[in-house]
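Lab channel / #folding
Pinned by the channel admin:
"Please post every new chain as: sequence first, then the structure tokens as a reply. Keep commentary short and put observations after the output so the thread stays searchable."

First post following the new format, from NK:
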Amino acid sequence: MLKTVLTPLTPVAAAIGASFLQQVWWVRGIEGAAFGAIVFVFIPLAINWASSRSNFVTLRVDCAVDFLPTTLPSEGRVTVVQLRYAPEVPHQAGQVSQGYGAPGQNTEWPPRTQAHKCEVRNIGTVSVFDVAVTLTVNFREVVRSPSNPVEWVSGGVIGTGNVSIVAPRLEEKIPFSFYVTNTSPHVAVVAAISAGYAWPGDGTRPRLILNLDPMRLMNFAPAGT
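Reply from TO:
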């Protein structure tokens, strides 16, 4: 391969060398210094830039309105993020629960329980492990109509918190799925989604880039409505 690449360049290199030798000594010195700068400075910088551009992993997150599953899927596992505002636990927005069992087994979730189903995809060829996906959630008060208590509107923000879920492994084109539901008596709005390694990187791990549609972030009515 090296011979194949270098052979077409031989006449070019010869022409450059002949032109170089025809210059006066001080011009050759300047040209030599410039060539040395290219070889020893700019080429390594270009290599480092290309390396930094390739050392990243792009994740895609998509969430859509759904219901909590009433039976376990074929893989026999379901993961649910239960949003809940707890003033006594600052900066927390809920908890993560996982159900295991035989495929088709009852999950004990009531039918038609409001939820969003989220899928995290690795858009690339490099597998990554233990990626924490964090939801930032705003909880808003429920303002009910004086004339009709059944009617309500979303009020001011009463608290904000985070809840994280860890994807143990993200391979190319194999999504990691989880559900999000609101178990609080407040309106829950997922204001942002972020991702990162569950532990600090050592400089050798790829940098994560998160790709999502901010217009499709999740909004939840109060539980039981």
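NK: The two ends are 68 Å apart (CA to CA).
TO: also worth noting, The CA atoms of residues 145 and 151 lie 6 Å apart.
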